[in-house]
Amino acid sequence: MTATAKVSKMQHRIRTSSTLVLLGLIVELVSLLWSHPTAFIVFLVLSASLMGLGILIYFYSLVSIPESSTVSESPGKSHL
Amino acid sequence: MISPTAILVGTIAVSIILAGLVAFRPSVTSSRGGKILAFVSILLFPMLAASMGVDEHVERSKTTAFCTSCHVMENHGKSLHVDDASYLPAAHFQNNRVPRDKACYTCHTDYTLYGGFKSKLRGMQHLYVQYLGKIPEKIELYNAYNNRECLHCHGGARSFEEGATHNLEDDRLDLIKSNQLSCLSTGCHEVAHKVESLKEMKFWTEGDRP
Q1: Which of A49, B90, B123, B184 is most buried, judging by how many CB atoms fall within 10 Å of its CB?
Q2: Contact A40 B63 (CB under 8 A)
Q3: Is B67 exposed, middle or buried (0-12, 13-18, 19+ CB in 10 A)?
Q4: Percentage with pLDDT > 70 across chain A
């Protein structure tokens, strides 16, 4: 897999994780609109699950891509 | 003074903006600064918003309005407004002996180290019964009411320590303090919510004048 492909895979995972976290935050905001046990359940089950899953995917994206696939390297630059 | 809810909403709004930025422009994470941005927007701020959200929801769950929002608790909420001083919850509620906005929580939380935590677990049990279980026909406490909850406020009070009825026998006060004789015993402070007789009762509303 080329470096570019690895980077886009990582960015895809970051996009996925940040989208899930975003959805979880929106659900949390909505759950604050009313004070009822159902709001608590929506927050606890839906929002926490979405954010938790997003964070887990983010962690996975950090550990799954090898170190050598960094875009910031300029061509021809070598590492010791 | 900014309310905690406003701070929470602000934190969520900032988190949404940051997470949205990374979601729609993941290429920003190519640079070192972008990676830090991703860390802050996917991990730090959402975790902060989530923990503040938990705190907000838990605080809301302590309110009387929250407890009485479930249909099954409607009559218990009504019983707080009964115009009869022998109704223990009503007397406490109407005379501000407990905070009105947290009346249920104040009396139905054990005053021990894990009292608040245990009551939250009981709350989760209520949720389970309400939505997934079978609501019993008669609502009863899971455990008998412990005198400790009464004595948290009334213990040491002159009216309690020197009350004639409390000192009818030599050991009566000790029996009460050790929870061997319930404050809610027949003939004593026995009337709690008594929702079955609400139809016959008169009700008080704040602002009523005699």
Answers
A1: B90
A2: no
A3: buried
A4: 71
Q: Which chain B residues contact residue A46 at CB under 8 A?
A: none
Please report the residues numbered 188 through 207 in chain B whose beta carbons come closer than 8 angstroms to any beta carbon of chain A.
Answer: none
Nearest Cα of chain B lies from the Cα of A67 at a distance, in angstroms, of 13
Distance between CA A3 and CA B92 in Å, rounded? 70
ipTM exceeding the 0.95 mark? no
Coil/strand/helix, residue B79: helix
Partnered with residue B82 across adjacent β-strands are: B203
pLDDT digits (tens, 9 = 90+) for B121-174: 777 788 788 888 888 888 888 788 899 999 989 999 999 999 999 999 889 999
Once rounded to an integer, what is the mean pLDDT over residues B98-110?
89
**DSSP 8-state code for residue B61:** T
Please give the structure tokens belonging to residue A77. Answer: 């630059």
CB of B180 less than 8 A from some CB of A:
no
Are A25 and B49 a contacting pair at CB < 8 A?
yes
Share of chain B above pLDDT 90, in %: 50
Burial of B23 (0-12, 13-18, 19+ CB in 10 A): buried
